[in-house]
């Protein structure tokens, strides 16, 4: 007999539980506590205790803490069964085996309806076995009736994928059994370079001359320092446009398209004003209609603006291609 499948779209809010946000907050606290335990264990060599069992019994009294709150951290599969009822008993070892195999991507909560009749009524259990799930405090019907391992595995895969896609919840493999890699301590921030910090501070305070000199000092010691290169390009750009009348500069660029100096100033103003693509296009056009020293000056200026934005920016990549076509 094939199980009666139910999709993630059937998820409904559990009316009798706390808000999912509260559950998520507690789960985050639990994760942080385990990370601290892992870090402490790395310091003293002690073993890190697992987060909890992969398979456990649950009753009405512990439903909120054991199932609902936990569901903010990992999908919780609920297996409703009863001793002496053959179809349900036959499914139990299949689910337990899969819980161990999936090793934390979901956890299995066993619910004996004979001792949890009120919970069974609240969740409208009509047949055995019945398998539901709880994800982020929401109830997700999976199937009713007997099911083979292949069918169950397919439903579990869909549950896990849906939990991550819809709610951002993905059980951590090995976290509960202790078989996974220990949590890594937060990376240690590298020490702040005093010279670079002084350059940044000068730039933030508007001391452009001081910032330019400070960045140049850093680059004299470390010519490949990307952060210093970007800072220097920004400081030099701001210094070039300081005191420039934007309206007069743009009028001059429009009236004298062959005037390289006018185009460079207008491009600087474009970039400072946030019109990055306009600035790049202006200088690419200038490169295309000039030659000799003027062309080289426009090209070099454009490259300095690339430094301000960053080499990986898609606008820079696009402009580099346009520049290459004009040059070659």
Automatic annotation (TrEMBL):
InterPro entries in the cross-refs: Thioredoxin-like_sf, Thioredoxin_domain, TPR-like_helical_dom_sf
Key words of the record: Redox-active center
Ranges of residues in domain Thioredoxin: 49-161
Pfam name, any one: TPR_20
Region annotated Disordered, chain positions: 28-49
Homology family: Belongs to the thioredoxin family.
Protein name, UniProt field: Tetratricopeptide repeat protein
Lineage: Bacteria, Bacillati, Actinomycetota, Actinomycetes, Kitasatosporales
């Amino acid at each position: 007999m094939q199980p009666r499948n139910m999709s993630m779209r059937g998820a409904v809010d559990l009316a009798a539980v706390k808000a999912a946000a509260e559950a998520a907050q507690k789960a985050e606290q639990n994760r942080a506590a385990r990370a601290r335990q892992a870090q402490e264990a790395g310091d003293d060599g002690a073993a890190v205790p697992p987060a909890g069992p992969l398979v456990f019994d649950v009753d009405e009294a512990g439903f909120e803490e054991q199932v609902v709150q936990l569901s903010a951290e990992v999908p919780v599969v609920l297996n409703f069964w009863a001793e002496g009822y053959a179809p349900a008993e036959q499914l139990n070892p299949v689910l337990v085996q899969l819980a161990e195999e999936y090793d934390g991507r979901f956890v299995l909560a066993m619910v004996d309806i004979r001792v949890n009749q009120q919970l069974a009524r609240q969740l409208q259990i009509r047949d055995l076995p019945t398998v539901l799930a709880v994800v982020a405090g929401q109830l997700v019907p999976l199937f009713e009736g007997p099911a083979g391992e292949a069918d169950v595995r397919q439903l579990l895969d869909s549950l896990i994928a849906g939990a991550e896609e819809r709610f951002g919840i993905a059980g951590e493999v090995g976290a509960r059994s202790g078989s996974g890699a220990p949590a890594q301590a937060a990376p240690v921030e590298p020490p702040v370079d005093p010279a670079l910090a002084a350059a940044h501070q000068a730039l933030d305070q508007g001391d452009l001359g001081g910032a330019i000199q400070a960045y140049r000092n850093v680059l004299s010691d470390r010519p490949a320092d990307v952060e210093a290169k970007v800072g220097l390009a920004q400081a030099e750009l701001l210094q070039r446009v300081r005191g420039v009348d934007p309206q007069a500069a743009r009028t001059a660029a429009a009236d004298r398209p062959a005037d390289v100096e006018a185009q460079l100033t207008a491009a600087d103003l474009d970039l400072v004003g946030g019109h990055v693509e306009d600035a790049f296009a202006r200088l690419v056009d200038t490169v295309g209609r000039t030659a000799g020293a003027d062309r080289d000056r426009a090209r070099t200026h454009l490259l300095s603006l690339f430094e301000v934005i960053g080499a990986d920016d898609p606008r820079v990549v696009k402009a580099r291609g346009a520049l290459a076509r004009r040059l070659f």
